[in-house]
Amino acid sequence: MKILGIESSSLVASVAVVTDDVMTAEFTANFKKTHSQTLLPMLDQMGQLIELDMKTLDAIAVAAGPGSFTGLRIGAATAKGLGLALDKPLVAVPTLEALAYNLWGCAGVVCPMLDARRNQVYTGVYRVDFGSAAVKSEADGNAAENGTAAGGAADGKDRMGIPEIILDQCAMDIVELMRKLEEIGEPVTFLGDGVPAFRARIETELKVPYAFAPAQSNRQRAASVAALGAEYVKRGRTVTAAEFKPDYLRKSQAEREREERQE
Q1: Which residue among 55, 122, 183, 191 has the highest number of C-beta atoms inside a 10 angstrom radius?
Q2: Which CATH class is domain 103-128+163-212?
Q3: What is the CATH architecture of 2-98+218-262?
Q4: Which of 61-70, 115-124, 132-141 is predicted with the least confidence, judged by mean pLDDT?
Q5: pLDDT score of 136
Q6: Mean pLDDT throughout 11-39?
Q7: pTM
Q8: Using the 8-state DSSP alphabet, how is residue 126 labeled?
């Protein structure tokens, strides 16, 4: 299975191709240029480098939101245009779920955060340690066959899987988020562009063990969008290019201001 991934939901612009379980290529830039300037040239350069025949794609996975309204619209337009031209299905991958997928196998819970302004973040809470659980399950089975003791574990039927949603993606006040994490009561790993804005508060106020993802994993990546998109394709979670719509989660500032003027 060959999946093209497109990620443009924030300052990061990223495209990638994942073929079966191999990342064939990825082009990512985190720089202050508009995605209308970067996304298609990046896709063209990556395609030339790996001699990509776009007709061989099985699907196009795109970060569907939340995130920057402009960025999401550019990513959606790019994916829809390719899907219509190539007659390929699209996979709407939730931005925060794909971001959490960067930390596949991480113990505890993963909390991606995107800065949503007004002291809020776009966030969610996920469990992505199914890989280690599957390995443990297999080890437990071997131990049982050998007559040795073993503890319980997940069934391990799907080594890749998709993130388990503990808190679905939403816009939330940072204080409310920290209280929610304390209720969950597990070690948490943070990542995303919301971390720099709220790191000091987390370090001062959060009452459960925490860590911050390192540089190579702490921003959106099209490879994660493509890899997770492949898992969605296996489960039949695709849409046509005409059906695809970004998930903004909330109204744009311009829409909110227009409604306020009309009141």
Answers
A1: 122
A2: alpha beta
A3: 2-Layer Sandwich (3.30)
A4: 132-141
A5: 45
A6: 92
A7: 0.86
A8: E
Estimate the share of the chain in helix, then strand, then coil, as percent rounded to the nearest 5.
40, 25, 35
Three-state DSSP class for 254? helix
Amino acid at 142: N
Task: Give residue 102's identity as a one-letter amino acid code.
Answer: N
Give the chain's length. Answer: 263
Residue 141: how many CB atoms within 10 A of its CB? Answer: 14
Pairing assessment for the beta strands 2-7 and 59-63 based on DSSP bridges: parallel
Instruction: Please choose, from the candidates 9, 125, 117, 23, the residue with its C-alpha nearest in 3D space to the C-alpha of residue 68.
Output: 9
185 CB-near residues (< 8 Å, 6+ apart): 208
Q: What's the 3-state SS for 151-202?
A: CCCCCCCCCCCCCEEEEEEEEEEHHHHHHHHHHHCCCEEEECCCHHHHHHHH
Residue 237 pLDDT class (50, 70, 90 cuts)? very high
